[in-house]
Each structure stands twice: as C-alpha cells, then as structure tokens.
C-alpha cells in the first residue's frame, strides 16, 4: 500500500533572477500550496532550505525549497527527511519537465532522473522510491538549447499552462495525503490542456 505523502519538495534555484524561470516550476508549486494552506516559509540553516508546515486534509505536511541550487537539492531534502524520520515513499518532488508539453502534468512513482540534475542528486541522497510531480514546460526543439530555455521565463501561454497544471495538482493533493496515488493520478491525468 502506498505511503501517505508527508513532505513535498519543490525544485528550483534560489536567486531572485531565477524566480519566474521555467526551471523553478517546482518552487511555484510549493509556493502555491503554502498560499492556499496558510504556510509561511522560513530559512532553516540545519536543512539549507526554506521550510514550512501546512495542514493539508487534516495532516501535517512539510514543504521544502532547497536553497542549495537545483543540482544540489538532495542533501537538504535528505536532512529534512532524517530530522522528521520520514522515508522516501512519503516524499513528493515537484519539478519542471521538458519531456512534457506545457499543459501536461504527470504523477510518477519511482524511476530514473531522465537527465534532470536535481532529480539525479535527490536519487543519490534519498534513493529513487519517491513520487514525482512532473510539470510540463516543453522542449525548445534542440538539445543544445535546453539550458537557456529552462533558465528564462516562458511565454505568457506557457506560464499560464504551468499555472493551470499547478492548480490541478493542488486539487489532487488530498488523495496523496491519504496515500491514494491511483485516485490522484486519475484526477490529474484527465485534465491535460496542452499548449501548441
């Protein structure tokens, strides 16, 4: 039986210049959760992360934004998990996904990193047995353009599609907090609204 989600980590880069870049879609998601559920972030040195607790569907859930930069996200997440004695199966990681078009969001259990350096580092520190919320941001078409693409703002249509995906993902969070991954996937995967 799947474990209920108790820690949600959003991936992104901490500097203000990256705040609205596509690579920070994971931060956008946990920020939206904090707004909806009255969470207030504070920096925790022992985790090297911005951190807050929310009450979601009657359960305490910890939101984490590593401040170590995307490619070094694993250690801050591991530190929170160790401190609260949480297992990888209780972790949801929200991140940008270039292999999905804007307007598509997917929930995935386990697996590899798919070339995402933030996921690579989390797998190195925590193992691969965690849920991923893959927020589609699209692909620039050529591999050598990916870094520049994700480290800038998306078009208005792309940003709006990602924000809609975030709203849809927030709607399925009570199912994840209850440990019902199948119900969450069903809700989420039937709401795609891709942008051409």
Provide a compact summary of the structure:
The protein is an alpha/beta fold and 196 residues long. Helices cover 35% and strands 21% of the residues. A 7-stranded mixed β-sheet has the order 2-3-4-1-5-7-6, with helices on both faces.
How are the secondary structure elements laid out?
Blueprint (H helix, E strand, L loop, with lengths): L6 E4 L14 H13 L4 E3 L4 E8 L2 E8 L7 H10 L7 E7 L7 E5 L7 H10 L4 E6 L9 H5 L5 H16 L1 H5 L3 H9 L7
Parallel strand pairs: 1-4, 1-5, 5-7
Antiparallel strand pairs: 2-3, 3-4, 6-7
Helix pairs in contact: 1-5, 2-3
Provide an overview of this structure.
With 196 residues, the protein is an alpha/beta fold. The chain has one domain: 3-Layer(aba) Sandwich (Rossmann fold), CATH 3.40.50.1470. Helices cover 35% and strands 21% of the residues. The chain has seven helices and seven strands; from the N terminus they run βαβββαββαβαααα. A seven-stranded mixed β-sheet has the order 2-3-4-1-5-7-6, with helices on both faces. Strand 3 and strand 4 form a beta hairpin. Helix 2 (74-83) packs parallel to helix 3 (117-126). The longest helix has 16 residues, at 156-171. The mean pLDDT is 93.
Please identify, by name, the CATH architecture: 3-Layer(aba) Sandwich
**Fourth-level CATH superfamily:** Peptidyl-tRNA hydrolase
Structural class: alpha/beta
Question: Sheet with the most strands?
Answer: 7 strands, mixed
- Uncertain runs: none
């Amino acid at each position: 039986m799947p474990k209920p989600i108790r820690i949600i980590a959003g991936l992104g880069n901490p500097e203000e210049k990256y705040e609205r870049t596509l690579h920070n879609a994971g931060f956008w998601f946990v920020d939206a959760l904090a707004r909806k559920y009255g969470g207030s972030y504070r920096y925790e040195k022992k985790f090297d992360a911005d951190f807050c607790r929310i009450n979601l569907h009657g359960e305490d859930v910890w939101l984490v934004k590593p401040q170590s930069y995307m490619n070094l996200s694993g250690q801050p997440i591991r530190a929170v998990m160790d401190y609260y004695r949480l297992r990888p199966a209780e972790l949801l990681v929200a991140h940008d996904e270039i292999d999905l078009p804007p307007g598509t969001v997917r929930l995935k259990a386990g697996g590899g990193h798919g070339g995402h350096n933030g996921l690579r580092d989390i797998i190195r520190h925590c193992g691969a047995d965690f849920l991923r919320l893959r927020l589609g941001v699209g692909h620039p078409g050529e591999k050598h353009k990916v870094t520049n693409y994700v480290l800038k703002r998306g078009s208005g249509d792309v940003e709006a599609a990602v924000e809609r995906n975030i709203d849809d993902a927030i709607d399925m969070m009570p199912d994840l907090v209850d440990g019902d991954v199948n119900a969450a996937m069903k809700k989420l995967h039937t709401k795609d609204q891709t942008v051409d």
